[in-house]
Amino acid sequence: MSFLVSFCIIAFLMTIISILSSSSTKKTQESKVNGPPSYPLIGSILSFNKNRHRLLQWYTELLRLSPSQTITIPLLGNRRTIVTANPENVKYILKTNFFNFPKGKPFTDLLGDLLGQGIFNVDGHSWSSQRKLASHEFSTRSLRSFAFEVLREEVETRIVPVLSAAADDAGSTTVDLQDVLKRFAFDVVCKVSLGWDPDCLDLTRPVNPLAEAFDTAAEISARRATEPLYAVWKVKRVLNVGSERRLREAIETVHELVSDIVRAKKKSLEIGMGQEAKQDLLSRFLAAGHDSDIVRDMVISFIMAGRDTTSAAMTWLFWLLSENDDVERKLLEEVEPLMSVRLGFEELKEMSYMKACLCEAMRLYPPVSWDSKHAANDDVLPDGTHVKKGDKVTYFPYGMGRMENLWGKDCEEFKPNRWFDSEQEITEPVLKPVSPFKFPVFQAGPRVCVGKEMAFMQMKYIVGSVVSRFEIIPVSKHKPVFVPLLTAHMVGGLKVKIKRREVKSHP
Length: 507
Ligand code: HEM
Prior knowledge:
The protein has 20 helices and 11 strands.
């Protein structure tokens, strides 16, 4: 009898194992099409957890296997995530059916404590009214020339002297170029947004408290999104423990310091300072009659959006140039004649090879690697993917830059020439128009980056000023590691030696 019972139990267990293993094989085969293996109740949590420290590579591998370059990842306790590298889908999400794909509460919750009601973190009416004002100000000649003067001063009186000092040290000084560019970008964005100078490039002074608090707040807010369970950070926040406690303190510092600047600016506007003092965004937003708290949130959004993006793009470009002598030589051929005159808007517009280099660097290392929306209602994407209300829908510039069907077999290589109509040498190379939905590094559609033109102006000016004067020599021969966070970073910075170039004259 006991033998019969044992036999029945073993037979039963073997049947269960064989059903589970066949369903798992089936799922694995299906996963080659739609995403990672997924099981009832737990979804893809096992493979997600296994890959959570290499999500960029994991998503890219899965997207390459998907015929329509779209994958779906169901996760226990979290909403489904749909990730796409398909330009038709990207266009649908960012433009055609824009209103069905707002950032949504799950996203705005992540950054809400830091960004409040600022443009970067709101949808609907609040977003559209801030967007109108911001787009208007960014299109004015006065803001553009103010930003250009800020840039010129920062380059000539700060970044060039810092690099010159390192070069004069006959190669004994090592500079973290990523850190220098981050400090530079923070100075520029604060001067343009607040009319206030944090003077971060004075390396003898301690790190500016606003810059430090911003760094901490941005990093911890970004890490909230990588928790396997959404509830984890929410519980930590309620209990005010660990990283959430540090986040709260950093946000208090950011809010207090920016509020002080807003108050001081308001006062100076009331007592009628000269035109000079009213050029920055803060003065413009206050002059448009907005309340101090909203203006505080608006400028915090601008600092957030403009601080680490340009520095990330330039850090990767400098590293790529150090690996590609032929590209660097060609860039110098374009830049040197222009640098010998006093650079202005017109000269910057002419730098088409420079623009190709910047785009190519951002194609491979996009400052914003992924960006998510949340479906307001059920929908179907152009490739047939069904979207359910509440799903997280992510477009993925990092993966898109690595899809062979979009960029060819050499998609992993740094080749600025791919941005020109013809690879042949012609007298006046013309940049190819490329769909922003294939290259959504600045996003696209109604919410496209407001600072895009300003960012190109900044990057062209700095890269031109630096490469024409200095040779940048990375200390390590290893390939740097790219981490996404809110804005991408190079792990450990970019440690370089600086050597002065034998150059033509500079103004
Ligand atoms: C290489 C540099 C830059 C890149 C790659 C970049 C990229 C982006 C991306 C992907 C977004 C969409 C983010 C989202 O909606 O979640 C965005 C939005 C935005 N960017 Fe940039 N950005 C850059 C520089 C700047 C600069 C210099 C500024 C301003 C000083 C700026 C201001 C903004 C603002 C205000 C938004 C929000 C627009 C809206 O929601 O309507 N960006 N940017």
